[in-house]
Fold these 2 entries.
Entry 1:
Amino acid sequence: MELSIFIEYWPLLLSGLIFTLKVCSSSLIMGLLLGIFLYLFSTIKNRLTFMIYRAYLTIFRGTPLLVQVYLIFYGGPLLGITLSAAEVGILGMGLYVAAYFSEIYRSGFNSLPKGQIEAAQNLGFSKRQILTHIQLPQILGLIVPSLTNQSIILIKESAILSIISVPEITYAAVKMASETYSVVEPYIFLAGAYWVINFVVSRFGNWVELKSTHYLATN
Amino acid sequence: MFDISIVFDYIGPLLEGLWTTAWISGISIFIGLILGVALALTRNGKHPLWSRLVIVYVSFFRGTPLLVQLAIVFYFLPLAGIFVPSIVAAILVLSMNTAAFQSEILRGGFRTLPKGQEEAAWSYGITQWQCFFHIKLPQVLRKTLPSLVNETIDIIKNSALISTIAVTDLMRIVQSYSSTTYRPLEFFITAGALYLILTCTVSYVGQRIEQKLIQHQGA
Amino acid sequence: MIDKAILELVDIKKRFGDNEVLKGINLKVKQGEVVSIIGGSGSGKSTMLRCMNFLEEYDEGEVCVQGRMIGYGADAKGNYIKAPYKCIQNDLKDVCMVFQQFNLWPHMTVLENVTTPLKLVKKTSKIEAEKKALEVLKKVGMEHKADSFPSQLSGGQQQRVAIARGLATDPKIMLFDEPTSALDPELVGEVLRVMQSLASEGMTMVIVTHEMNFAAQVSDNIVFLASGLIEEQGHPDLLFKNPKSEKLKTFLASWH
C-alpha cells in the first residue's frame, strides 16, 4: 500500500469531495422544495392532475438515474439550453429525489388522524395556523428519518455523475487511479469518503429527528 | 431532427440487452434473498464475532455507492489473482449489495414477529429449524413483501451501472448505439421506456401477490 | 398404592435479574387432577406455569414430568447443566400449553394449524393428520371452520382451535396460561365449556386463571400464589369458604 501518492493527490481529492458536497446539497435543496410543490400538486382534487403526478412518480422512480441524467445531458442542447455537466447533474438529481420527497411528505400528512384537523377547524384555526401549529410539528418527526434515508441514497447515487465527467469525488478518485496505475488506495479512500459522508448525514438526521420530537419524550 | 423510428432498426439487440438486464437482476435478487436471510439470522444470532462481521458487511454495502463497489470488485479481483468474466463479477456485486439491504428488511421482519409464535412451536416440540422454515420465514416474507418488491425495483435500476464494468446489458447497448448513430435522445428515451417496462411489471406482480395474500388470509 | 405425581415442582426458584419472582415453589399434581393457580398480578403465576414446560428456565429446584427432571442434566461432578434441545423436547412430549394470546399461526388455515405439529413432530402422514385434526376440531366445535384463517375467527373461536391443536398431540398434561383473559366477556363461556369437558374426561390440567367461579367448579386443587410463594392450597370448597391466610382473604374480598 503506497500512501505517498496521497501527498500528491490530496488537493484533487479534496476538491472532488467539496464538489460532491456542493452538488448533493444543491440537488437535495432543489428536491425538498420541488417535492413540496409536487405534493401540493398531488392534493388537487382533479383526476387528470393526479394522473400527471403519478406519471411523474413512475418515470422518475422507475427508471435509472443514469438514464435521466443522460436524457437531460443530450436533450438540453436540442431544446436550446446549454448546461454544464454539474448543472445537468443537479437538475437530474433534483427532479429524481423530488419524486421520493413528495411521497414522503404525502405519507406524513396522511398519517395524521383527520380528527385533529377537524378539532382545530372547529376551534376556528385558519388553514395556515393548522399547518404550522398542528400538522408540521407532528409530521416533522415522522418524515425526518425517511428524508434522511433518501438523502443518503442520493449521495451514493451522485457517484454516477462521474460518468458524465462532473469533477466530484468519484471522478477525482478514478482520475487518480488511472494516473498512478494503482487501484487499491484511491478506491479504498473513495469508499471510506462516502461512508463518512453518509455517517455524518445519518447522525445529523438523528439530531434533527430528536429535536423535532422532544414533545414525545416521557420523563 | 428527432426521429424515434431509428430505434426500430436496432430493436433486436435492444431487447436482448433488456433480457440480459432482466436475468442478471433476477439472479442477483434471488441470491441476495438467500444470502440476506443468512445475514439476518447471523446478525440476530448468538456468536458476537459473526454478528459484528455482518454489521460491518451491511454497513459497507449500504454506506457506499454501488458504482464504487463494482469498481472495487472489478479491479481488486485480478490483483488477488482471481479472473472472472465481467458478468460474474457484476452478479457477485449486485447480489452482495442487495443482500445487505434485504437483510436489514428481513431483520426488521424477524424482530417484530410476536414471540408467542415461537413459544407455541416450542410447546409442541417443533425443532428450531422446523419453526424457522414453517412458521417464522413464511410470515416474515409476507410481511416484508412490499419492501422486498421495492428493493427488487432498485436492483433493476442499479443494474444499469454494470455497463461500466463491460457487461453488455441494456444500458451498455443503448450507450454504444447512441454514439454510433448520433441519436442519443431517441435511444435514451427508449432505454427509459424499456427499464420502465421491467420495473412496472415487477411492481404490478408485487401488488397482485399482496392482494392475493390479503384475500387468502382475510382480515 | 401411592399416588405418584405426574408433574412435580420441588423448591423452584426463578430470578429475572435482581428480581426473585419465584422463591421456592413446591407442588405435586396427580394424574387426572385439575389444578388452578390463582393470585394477584406479579405473584408469579405465569412464571410458575411456564417453568413447567421450560419456557422459563428455572434457576433452582427441580421440575419433574412423569418422574423425569426436565431442562437440566447433571454432569460428572453433579453440577446442573442445561440439557440439549432434543432431550428437553423428548421429556416434554406429553405436555402442551394453551396461551393467553392463542398464538395460532396466522399464515396457516385452522386445519393446517392443527396438523402441522403432527406432521412435523410426530411425523404423521397428511391423511392421518387431517383425520385426527378434524376429530379434535369437532370436539371443540370448530370443524366447520377448518379452512378458515385465524384472522377470520373471533377470539373464542381462535382459543378453541388452539386447544384442539394441543389435543391433537395426545397430551397427558395440558397447561393453560390465562386462557380467557384476552377474550371479550361474551366469548369466555365457550372456551370454559371446552375446558370443563376436558376436565370431566380426566385430563390432567394446570390452569392459571382469574375466573374464580370456573376454578371453583372444575378444580381438584386451588393454589394461591402471593409474592412468589404458595400462600395456601387446597380443595376449592375449603379454600374459598374458609380461607386461612390474610392475603387470601384480602384477595378473595376484592373479587366480590
Entry 2:
Amino acid sequence: MTVYSNNTGIVSGVTEVIQVPYKIQELFIKLVKSAKEEVSLVLPTTNAFNREERLGIIQMLKEAALEHNVSVRILTPANIDVEKKIRGISAPSDQEGQSLGLEIRPIETTWGATITTVTVVVVDRKESLAMEKIDDSKDSFLEATGSATYSNSQPTVSSYLSVFESMWQQSELYTHVREANKRLEYANEQLLVTEKAKEEFISMISHELKTPLVPLKGYAQMLLRPKFMGGAELNERQKTAIEAMSRNIEKLEALIEDVMDVYKLDMGKLKFSMTDTDITKLINETISELRPLAIARKIELTTEIIANGTVFCDPNRIDQVLSNLIKNSIDFVPDNGNGKINVRVQKERGDDESDVNLFTVEDNGIGINPEKADKLFQKFYQIDTGPARKHSGTGLGLVICRGIIEAHGGKIWVDKTYGSGAAIKFTLPQIKKQLKAKEDDAGVT
Amino acid sequence: MRVLLIDDNKDVAEMVRLCLESQDNITCRVIDEGKAGLQLIKDDTFDVILLDLAIPEFSGFDIFKALREDNLLKSKNILIFTASSVTDTEVQQMLAFGAKGVLRKPLSIDDLIGAVERFRQRGD
C-alpha cells in the first residue's frame, strides 16, 4: 500500500538519503512549516543554532508555537549568546515567566556524541530529518550541510524521538544539577560571610575586653614607681592597695585570655601555626620559663625526654598546654622542699597503630580524685581543695588544653592509675594528621 | 626623641604619653583620628610611631595599607599597638611588610618603654 504524506509528498514508510544541500534546506523548512502538533529539534552546536536562526527556522518555530499551539522543544548547547537569543525568542512569556509553547533546554556537547554531531528534527512524531554537517564553521546552511536522511518510517522516527526524549530528560537533570550547584555556591558564599563575621566579632570582643585594662595596668604600675609620679613616694597602705589592684588586673587579663581561647575553640576559630618542632627544645623552653617559679616554691622540676626528634605542632600552643599543666602541679605539690614535678616524653604506639608522642606531667602533690578526673576537662570545673586551696587558675586551663590537643589530633587524660600525686598525659601524633581546627591562614593585605 | 601615638582611646593615650614622657628626652604626640594621623606620619618625622589598629572610620589597618602602597613602611618606625586578637601569621605579615614590631595591649610599662627606647638614636 502506498500512502502519501500530506506534508511532503514523499511516500510513507520510506527512509531516503538526500545528497543535495539545497534540497535538504528546502525539506527542512517545509517540514517545520508543516508541523501541526509538535517539533523536536536538536541543534548540536552554537553555530548550528545561529545558522538555523539565520535561515528563519527559529522564527518559524516561534510563530508555530505562538499562533498554532505547536509544542516546540529545542535542545542546543548552553551558552551565553544562545541564552540571550533564547530570551528574545521565548518572549512573550506569561506572568510566571513561562515561555508559551516553545521550550529550549541546554545540552552538554559531550553527550550522545553520535546524535549531537547532526541536526535532527522530528515533526509530529511522524517524520524525521537528520542533517549531517560537513563543516560547522561555515555560516550558511548550504555550505555547512553534507547529506541528510529523511524518514517517515515509524521505527526510524520513533528511535530518533526516543533518543531526543532521553536527551530532553537528561537536560532537565543537568539543569537541576546546575541550579543545585548555584545554590551550593551561594550557600558557600554565605558561609564565608558568616565565618568572617565570626572572626570580626571575636576580634571586636577581645578588643573591647582588653582595652579598659590598658590604662588600669599602666597606671597601677606607674603609681608604684615614684619616677612616673613626679617623685611622690607612696605610704604603705597606698602601696598595698595598688599592689592588690595590680595583681587583680593580671588575673583579669589572664582570665580574658582564657575566656577568649575557650570562645575561639567553641567557634572553631582558634588558629594554629603548625610547624615541625623540636621536642627537646620545646620542653626546655617551657621549663626554663617556669623554673624561677618552681625554685621560689622549692620544687624540684625535672624532665625525661625519651622521644626526641620533631613533632608537627603549633609550638606556642603546646607550650601553653605544658605550661598550664606544670603550673597546676606547682599549685598542688608541697612547697616545703619535698615537691617534685617531672615532665616526660616518650614514643608510644597509638590506638590506630601509628606512632604518637606521649607527654606526661606528673607530681607528688595532693593527687586527683579518680571520680572527678574526667570533669577536669569541662568548663569552669575546678577541684575544690577547701580553705587550703592555693590554685589560682580560672578553671578554663584544662578545657583549653583539651581543645588544643584534640585540634592536633591527640588526646589528653588523667592517669587514674598513678600512685600518690597526679599525672596528666597527652599525645601528639607523629604523622601529620588532618587538623580539626583551622590552620592560621588569615591575611593582612 | 619624638614619638607619635595614633589611638582614639583617650585614657590609653594619656597613660602612654605620661609613661613615655616620664623618661628622659621623650615627647609624645597623640592623634586620635586615622586620616590626620596618616597625614602627620607623611609630613613629619618621628623616631617611633605607635599605631592602634581599631580606630573608627579610617583605621590603623587603613593607615598601614596606605603607607605600604606609598612605600613608606620601611622608612618609618611603625610599632603596631593593638588590643585586637592578631594571629601570629598576621604579625609575621605585618613585620614582613615593614612594621618594626607588634605590641599587644595590655602591656607592662617596661615593655612599652623598652619597645620605644630601641629606636633612640645617639644624641637624643
